[in-house]
């Protein structure tokens, strides 16, 4: 049937009327679904799914002029988290991001829409069409350690204004704001080297999240600059609790390692494992070994000694992300800035022990 021909065989921009024919609905219904149903009309979920599927098949992209007009009436910015539990608790590490987002959005005259579809499991965001609902907002901020690259790429390629909080070079044309983890991690290494440490190990999770990659890069570059390059200086642990044990730590100390560094993640798994290993080995920081954390400790460990490391400017990152998104909405262009992290002296690192 003519209605079933692919977008590749068509000429020009697909229209809503074509989407309506392919989905078997009225053009009014298509307009409601693709426009985010701001009128609140009751629509069956199957109907919405058919419309979105037809739009994807045809490669439908909203007319830029029409979208600008709609945005002028909407004044809504979306926030979508890819974490398993949407961060609403004050003690959650993502909460300061939301504070910065809210404050900056208010300054620019925007309201916020929090998309919580990932609250019961971040993997839901990777299902086909899962991100389409963010079109209710004029543009959307995304955050999370791991992202559904295909779905997010599709949104951006269709012209939807999106900014990720955290560096995301792997997706072309996706704007982002990020913390300068490379320089911050290097500063921690320089601090440890100045204390006399010559053997250090970085413990990180076994994945390729950009934040982890940046921390490792800064760690290795600073070691090399100090003449301390060591191919075995980075340990990737798939299960830190099982791999970073007291016996493991004793073995590294016997080899001459005097400082152990961990990366911050959503779970804090590497840092928790290091603390448990030090305690299990009957050692103390900083008298026996020095410890450093590339980021901030989990909220439930706030009563422990303040770790040497750096603080991530989460509130400023949230505000910077809003500024980047509003620039996309008003000018169609934006930059992807890096925000500096503040070094934290802490109390877990001291002079290298003599062994």
Automatic annotation (TrEMBL):
Alphabetical list of Gene3D superfamilies matching this protein: 3.40.50.2300, lambda repressor-like DNA-binding domains (1.10.260.40)
Domain spans labelled HTH lacI-type: 14-71
GO molecular-function terms, A-Z: DNA-binding transcription factor activity; transcription cis-regulatory region binding
One Pfam family recorded for the sequence: Peripla_BP_3
Lineage of the organism: Bacteria, Bacillati, Actinomycetota, Actinomycetes, Pseudonocardiales
InterPro entries: HTH_LacI (IPR000843), LacI/GalR-like_sensor (IPR046335), Lambda_DNA-bd_dom_sf (IPR010982), Peripla_BP_I (IPR028082)
Protein name stated in the entry: DNA-binding LacI/PurR family transcriptional regulator
Domain of life: Bacteria
Keywords: DNA-binding, Repressor, Transcription, Transcription regulation
Organism: Prauserella shujinwangii
């Amino acid at each position: 049937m003519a209605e079933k021909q692919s977008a590749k065989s068509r000429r020009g921009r697909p229209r809503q009327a074509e989407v309506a024919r392919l989905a078997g609905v009225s053009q009014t219904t298509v307009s409601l679904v693709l426009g985010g149903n701001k009128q609140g009309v009751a629509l069956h979920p199957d109907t919405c799914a058919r419309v979105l599927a037809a739009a994807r098949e045809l490669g439908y992209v909203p007319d830029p002029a029409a979208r600008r007009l709609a945005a002028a009436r909407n004044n809504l910015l979306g926030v979508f988290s890819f974490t398993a539990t949407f961060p609403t608790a004050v003690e959650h590490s993502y909460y300061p991001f939301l504070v910065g987002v809210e404050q900056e959005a208010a300054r620019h005259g925007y309201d916020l829409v929090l998309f919580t579809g990932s609250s019961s499991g971040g993997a839901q965001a990777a299902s086909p069409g899962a991100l389409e609902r963010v079109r209710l907002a004029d543009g959307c901020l995304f955050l999370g350690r791991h992202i559904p690259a295909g779905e997010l790429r599709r949104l951006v390629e269709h012209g939807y204004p999106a900014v990720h909080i955290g560096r995301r070079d792997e997706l072309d044309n996706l704007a982002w704001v990020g913390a300068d983890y490379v320089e911050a991690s290097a500063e921690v290494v320089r601090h440890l080297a100045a204390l006399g440490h010559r053997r250090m190990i970085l413990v990180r999770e076994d994945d390729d999240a950009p934040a982890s990659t940046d921390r490792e890069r800064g760690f290795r570059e600073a070691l090399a600059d100090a003449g301390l390059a060591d191919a075995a200086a980075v340990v990737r642990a798939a299960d830190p609790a099982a791999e970073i044990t007291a016996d493991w730590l004793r073995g590294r100390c016997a080899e001459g390692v005097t400082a152990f560094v961990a990366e911050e993640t959503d779970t804090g798994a590497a840092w928790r494992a290091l603390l448990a290993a030090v305690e299990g080995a009957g050692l103390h920081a900083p008298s026996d070994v020095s410890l450093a954390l590339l980021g901030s400790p989990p909220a439930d460990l706030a009563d422990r000694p303040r770790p040497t490391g750096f603080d991530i400017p989460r509130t400023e990152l949230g505000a910077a992300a809003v500024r980047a998104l509003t620039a996309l909405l008003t000018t169609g262009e934006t930059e992807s800035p890096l925000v500096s992290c503040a070094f934290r002296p802490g109390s877990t690192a001291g002079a290298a022990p003599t062994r």
